[in-house]
Amino acid sequence: MTPSPIEYTAAQREFRAEVRDWLAANAPAEVRGLRVPRGPSDLDERLAAWAATLAEAGYLCVAWPTEYGGRGLTGVEVSIMNEEFGRADVPRLTRGMGESLVGPAIIAHGTDEQKRRFLPPIISGEHDYCQGFSEPDAGSDLASLRTTGVVDGDDLVLTGQKVWTSGFWKANMIFVLCRTNPDAPKHHGISYVLLPLERDGRPNGVEFRPITRITGKALFAETFLTGARAPLDNVIGGLDNGWRVAMTTLGSERGGSATTQHVAFLRQFWQLVDEVRARGLIGDVRVREQLAWAYTQVETIRMAGLALVADLAGGGTGRGLGNGSTSKIRWSEYQRRLTEIAMDLLGPDALVVGDGYDLDHWQEEFLVTRSHTIWGGTAEVQRNIVAERVLGLPKDPAPGGTR
């Protein structure tokens, strides 16, 4: 990995050496070179064993405060850790949504009892969460959700429908937004609930209906809640106060990878170069121009990541100057274009799939990246954010007039 111009402190350099030495001594050969699959896989057992090793050594939930089982790592230290896992070519596993979305919300808004009850099972892997936010008529306008929560004794009873529930196939918990006060203003009267998929060993009124993507895999689901019950003690932040809790979750959703995502992109670039060489196309001037463009984009992403690390090292938050929006635009549009280039270079082979719709690496990447400029905030919305909130430009005129 190319050395960065960041001036690290002695403690940060010591931390890098600690992570590097630990990986050299403890990362088993069977996980080196593994890529975390999308969806269920025959790699699950090996990855679960590796996750248990990481948990025992304190390399999961590392950004959480130490009093809650984390290591209290700063943004720079998390970036260093990610770099070293990339250097060692081993999966940098996390506890998924539990670690990145639910945990920060509990830490910020939960009671002491809730922190004691819900945080340790995330670290151990006992609780695996999926998300119940979006609804068929409440995606971008999340506050218009219609799922209801009604108090019944010591329980909250949930009824409604959610959609785009990822990770449903392995989850045993779902964090849900529901409306508990229909008379309150739009962004009030909403509660944030941790809902178990089973209670007392029996189904808890939660039904998943898988949604098959164009890759042929069902990684999302529609979720139907029919009298699903959660103890009132599972409401984070208190009844009717869920919107501010949800903002903590949504604020965590886009963080984390911008400083080191170039590692995976560079690996993918060299995979494409190997494919080009194998097909005898490396001398084609047009092909070389496309590869040069791709490498330039990866370097741009790398340098933007270094700028973010420099901001964090200087005491910044890493969220200034539209970093989230510009990063999303940059990497999503790059990945879409790279896979289009790959498919062009594969030629007629790109149109041939295996038995049972068995896609090769580049075919799957091409199909998956079609949505990258849409989810997490469309590229158009991100450009408006940069234009209006960062550059101070006027808003686009409304259709049929001005605003």
TrEMBL record:
Coiled-coil features, chain-numbered ranges: none
Keyword Oxidoreductase belongs to the record: yes
All residue ranges annotated as the Acyl-CoA dehydrogenase/oxidase N-terminal domain in the record: 9-126
Alphabetically ordered keywords of this record: FAD, Flavoprotein, Oxidoreductase
InterPro entries noted in UniProt: Acyl-CoA_Oxase/DH_mid-dom, Acyl-CoA_Oxase/DH_mid-dom_sf, AcylCo_DH-like_C, AcylCo_DH/oxidase_C, AcylCoA_DH/ox_N, AcylCoA_DH/ox_N_sf, AcylCoA_DH/oxidase_NM_dom_sf, Mycobact_Acyl-CoA_DH
Signal peptide positions on this chain: none
Cofactor: FAD
GO cellular component terms given for this protein: plasma membrane
Superkingdom, natural source: Bacteria
Domain called Acyl-CoA oxidase/dehydrogenase middle: residue spans: 130-215
UniProt domain Acyl-CoA dehydrogenase/oxidase C-terminal: residue ranges: 241-391
Gene Ontology molecular functions: flavin adenine dinucleotide binding; oxidoreductase activity, acting on the CH-CH group of donors
Record family assignment: Belongs to the acyl-CoA dehydrogenase family.
PANTHER family: ACYL-COA DEHYDROGENASE, ACYL-COA DEHYDROGENASE FADE29
Protein name (record): Acyl-CoA dehydrogenase
Native organism: Actinophytocola xinjiangensis
